[in-house]
Amino acid sequence: MEKRSQPLTNDTARLVPKTAFDVPVLEFDFPALQIGVAAYEEGPTGCTVFRFSRDPTSVIDVRGGFPGTIHGSPEEDIRTAAICFAGGSTYGVEAATGVAAELFAQSGYSDIKLVRGAITYDFWRDNKIYPDKALGRAVLKSARTGVFPLGRAGVGVSLTCGGGFGGSERTGQGGAFLQVGPTKIAVFTAVNAAGAIVDRQGQVVRGHLDRRRPGPTIGLTGDQSRGSKRGSDRVGQEGTGRAGGFAPAARGERIGNELRGKRRTCQRPCI
Question: pTM value?
Answer without folding.
Answer: 0.78
